[in-house]
Amino acid sequence: MAAIRFGNLSVFTARSSLKDKTWLSMSVKHTCAMKAGQGTNGQIRSKVLAIDSMNPHVKKIEYAVRGPIVIRAGELEKELQQGEKKKFNSILRANIGDCHATGQEPLIFLRQVLALCLYPQLMQDSSFPEDAKQRASRFLSACGGNSIGAYSDSAGVSVVREDIAKYISERDGIPADPENIYLGTGASEGIRNVLKLMMTSLEGNERAGVMIPIPQYPLYTATLSEYNAYPINYYLDESSNWSLSVEELKRSMTEARPHCKPKAICVINPGNPTGQVLTRKNIEDIIKFAHEENLFILADEVYQHNVYAEGSEFHSFKKVMMEMGSPYSEMELASFMSTSKGYMGECGLRGGYVELVNLDPDVIVQFRKALSAKLCCAVTGQAAMNVIVNPPKPGEPSYELFEQQKNTVLNQLKEKGKMMSDMFNSIDGITCNPVQGAMYAFPKIDIPKKAVEAAQAKGIAADALYCFNLLEETGMCVVPGSGFGQREGTWHFRTTILPPVQQMKEMLSKFGDFHSKFMDTYS
Amino acid sequence: MAAIRFGNLSVFTARSSLKDKTWLSMSVKHTCAMKAGQGTNGQIRSKVLAIDSMNPHVKKIEYAVRGPIVIRAGELEKELQQGEKKKFNSILRANIGDCHATGQEPLIFLRQVLALCLYPQLMQDSSFPEDAKQRASRFLSACGGNSIGAYSDSAGVSVVREDIAKYISERDGIPADPENIYLGTGASEGIRNVLKLMMTSLEGNERAGVMIPIPQYPLYTATLSEYNAYPINYYLDESSNWSLSVEELKRSMTEARPHCKPKAICVINPGNPTGQVLTRKNIEDIIKFAHEENLFILADEVYQHNVYAEGSEFHSFKKVMMEMGSPYSEMELASFMSTSKGYMGECGLRGGYVELVNLDPDVIVQFRKALSAKLCCAVTGQAAMNVIVNPPKPGEPSYELFEQQKNTVLNQLKEKGKMMSDMFNSIDGITCNPVQGAMYAFPKIDIPKKAVEAAQAKGIAADALYCFNLLEETGMCVVPGSGFGQREGTWHFRTTILPPVQQMKEMLSKFGDFHSKFMDTYS
Hints:
Two copies of one chain form a homodimer.
Chain A: H1 23-32, H2 56-60, H3 68-81, E1 92-93, H4 108-118, H5 130-141, H6 158-172, E2 181-185, H7 186-198, E3 208-214, H8 219-226, E4 230-235, H9 246-256, E5 261-268, H10 280-293, E6 296-300, H11 317-324, E7 333-338, E8 351-357, H12 361-372, H13 379-389, H14 399-425, E9 430-431, E10 440-441, E11 444-445, H15 449-458, H16 462-474, E12 476-477, E13 479-480, E14 493-496, H17 501-522
Parallel strand pairs in A: 1-12, 3-4, 3-5, 5-6, 6-7
Antiparallel strand pairs in A: 2-8, 7-8, 9-11, 10-14, 13-14
């Protein structure tokens, strides 16, 4: 059996029901080989670009949220569509925070504004409310030729940047400047663009180092791999609800120092995949630590609307930093936001922004220049972001419906988060911290020694074995903890809390049965 | 006077009417300094990220299409809005192929489909034609949860990939496979993603080398800078209508070989900024050369609909390569397309795709994995691309209007291209090749020695001096040839052929006056 490796880490490379070929090599054959005169006997003429000659940093990228288990889920889905009989009737995609894909209804007001921007003839349509028309008119007036089809400034459409600054100012009670706001393709692109600034091609203790939480959202390790930066892993404390201790930050920094030049710390709040919400005190401690160590702060705050737990509250890094006063208020910070999460869940529109605070003006020139070579991000995503930062106000015709849709989504997420952690905690051998925020549960599973050995024999991680089995037995697609990082010897998986309540109830009941069976098989 | 440099090349760094500060440092101060406790006396506390500690490869990026002259144009525009008196009443942005910004009307059918995708409630609206509804329904049926707000597969929405393959098959009479198609944020992202595969962090004669045309579209040099690859410049022959000679390819290769490991050749056809359309014979020669030298071919074919000259015809590299048979038909090729150009000009929607032909299956696995870490490109841009590759057919309700809009745009571009080159050629000291295709004229200007010296004294290129002056005197914003590359001692600028006919006539008349005055000043 050929092992398929996605880089240096062996995360999960095959499935249990493997026959003579791996599923991945099968699917790859399907996609691209035997297309242009290549023999089917394995003889492949030498390529300009081969695995040994290609960019080695790209090879090191890992991205489990769309990894082999997810590819396998797609294959199963196709087989079901073709009428194959399975133990389940459909795939439950709990691997990715893809709100609309799991049935969440789009916000009507947001879609009305977008439809008006794309097809301004609808301005004459009396069924569209005035506030939607007003938003669309204002947006279009700032577009080249009044068209959403014109390129925007590379930083984004001016009125969107203005409205974002106003949103941030009102959120924090701290001024924000439109000139510090840069729109992007989701939050991901902004994160990549900012991290890219830090990177050098230097090696040894001059190699750029970036602190990242473990468990983390794998965009961070993927980007660090691509730019050959050194990941400084700091572990979140599962035993105290995934909190972040300064002692652990110091430990990781001490260990990393001989291997790199530490430049930045990434914090995800509310946490992905871990769902914790940082306290204000915790944020202050992180800022003090970053100041002592002279680190640039990257605050991934895309779940700022997704806070559910009693007593939990979202505090932006910027607000806390500014309120701490000098010298903290002068630190360099990048804060990221997205249209993909929150209550809107408009992932496909790929809206996002970064606010850059206190950056060196010369660096900003370089940042803008690098942005300009990409022209601009999708102007449709910018229009969506505009709605989120400038939603209907009390007294406007769409206010009540908008608030109702928003609260329904957030209340359901709160309910489902609790349902999920309660259920997991009711099963022997599984423990799950409460979902304080974001969109995920990250339960710990006690995997029996025999299963760990069986996974090792297949060259995959034990939680990958667990998740592949879960998929094949129940149709549930979740992501193994090894895709996010975890303390050695512990095993987890990440599941979204997005499926509709009824579907989630069925899923959780099937899950219990699967777990018992798995434990029996390997006990 | 502080010189602002955008990297290693000094392209244009100041304007003629400079006082005690450069315009660029002024605008940067405006954007980001003095925001958080920094003194105004020039004392800036040390930053984590400074010009000396940031990514050196990002510093080397150049992108003139949105460079200092364009930033200055934005400033002038604001000043006009604030009521300042100038020698002109508006800025004519001929610097960028931004069709809608210069008044081109969006295709009604395309916008109807998009409005339907975003706001499916419009499916009940009888004013929307059935073919638009059918396209939208088909597209949404392939989206997660039937919503354009769901993430797509990282490669793109399945039906779009299928329709693109069908479009390519029909265009070339050669089969295309949907599995080889990857959607992206415009063509730019695809170009970056494919070039990225070639790069290594190796130096000396192991450093990756990529052949690019000079003059070129600066995305190529920008990307090569960012990934520290070696640009192998081959010069297009201005004296024979910017044709591409194999002798020149060989010369550039011979010169480059000690400095890099050549991996790929980029060809832009129809040409940007040069507007030539390659003959089939020329393409065959390039393919043979690439085969001899074992090069991967990147064919930038985003202007495939923009061919105007009698006797010129678009031939895709894929078609020619396949028709040449083995071994050429087995070569590795990436062909790029966009929704931004053509007759649709939907730049802001950022739709694009790449077709990858004959790639090593292992490399494809890596390519897909790297894509997946970016999640997906904007699904709205994918929907726009779907319309372009599957437009209304004869007999469908929108067919006639669509064809009429399409032909109007293409006929006007043809007319304006001719008008522009004729006018330039009527001026003493300016010569301009015919605009066979694409959207630009790239005239050569004989700049007097005194002007070259004046520019040198300011630390800028002579054509940058010319273009800054043109902007300040007439409001016309064009891009100096030095931003695209040109033979040493020659000077050019690129202007789009997009402005409406009447506006273009006025512009060309003002241009003649400016040119005479410039020549007088420096003769």
